[in-house]
Amino acid sequence: MSGMKLTTEKNLMVFSGRAHPELAEEVAELVGTGLVPSSMYDFANSEKYVRYEESVRGCDAFVIQSHTAPINEWIMEHLIMVDALKRASAKRITVVMPFYGYSRQDKKHRGREPISARLVADLFKTAGADRLISVDLHADQIQGYFDGPVDHLMALPILADYVRGKYGAESDLAVVSPDAGRIKVAERWSARLGGVPLAFIHKSRRTDRPNETVANRVVGEVEGRMCVLVDDMIDTGGTIVKAAEALMEQGAKGVIIAATHGILSDPAVDRLKNSPATEVILTNTLPLAADKHFDKLTMLSIAPLLARAIRAVFEDGSVTSMFDGHA
Length: 327
Description:
Blueprint: E1 12-16, H1 21-31, E2 38-42, E3 48-52, E4 60-64, H2 71-87, E5 92-97, H3 116-127, E6 131-135, E7 150-153, H4 156-167, E8 173-177, H5 183-192, E9 198-205, E10 213-219, E11 226-234, H6 238-249, E12 254-262, H7 268-273, E13 279-283, E14 297-300, H8 303-314
Parallel strand pairs: 1-4, 4-5, 5-6, 6-7, 8-9, 8-11, 11-12, 12-13, 13-14
Antiparallel strand pairs: 2-3, 9-10
Helix pairs in contact: 1-8, 4-5
């Protein structure tokens, strides 16, 4: 019999870009390893340089980078990190993007527009990514943009369990979706909170002006209830604050805002501070500067969720089982 047989060991290695190193360090610690030492810097003309200080040949690589502002810089660094791993003979490269940049540009609203979310997926595939892991994509169809496995994680268990632990004694909770398109997510929230009632905000989005909606009307019974207003992200805060105000006008007892991604572009912090919401709950998928923290804000760590997913992928386990079959 010709040939040679070798018994090889799998080698998990975690890499981090410079966008949100605190999250990557927490994930690596929970996985049970450290971050691979890397040299990263910008040239005078703003080009980016990446080099790993350890051999990565044959490893199972997990490359973590949050696509925060300035988003184009960090996406480019993420791509270069993947390319460096491919050229250094990593066996499998999994891109971990807690927040998927350009995810809101997932379809054409009008003629002559791009589908930038698809372009980002193509860029990572071309760079050498074998798999993507992301949290609460803006639209489920983005999973189909990448030609390979995509693990779509949900922050719902982390957020909902916090709400249930703090407000579970309230017998008058209601879950509210900020628009009709996120009713499925609101239904899962309702189930997680024990089958509480559902409502949604009917809104119209202006196609000529970004980050702006017009007309808010509450559909559902919210009077006298503590409303949990749930969304995937808060950017300028206009939509979510208008929704909170609409709920209070309809006689809600109070409003709790819960979202996965806290982009918080100006003037989001001022809007949220002055909103009628009792509490704003976010996860740390994106870094938040100290000057953007405020009294109503609660930050929950997404690191345990990412660490579990990384372990499941590395050990060829089930990521779907982490979410009762819904992922």
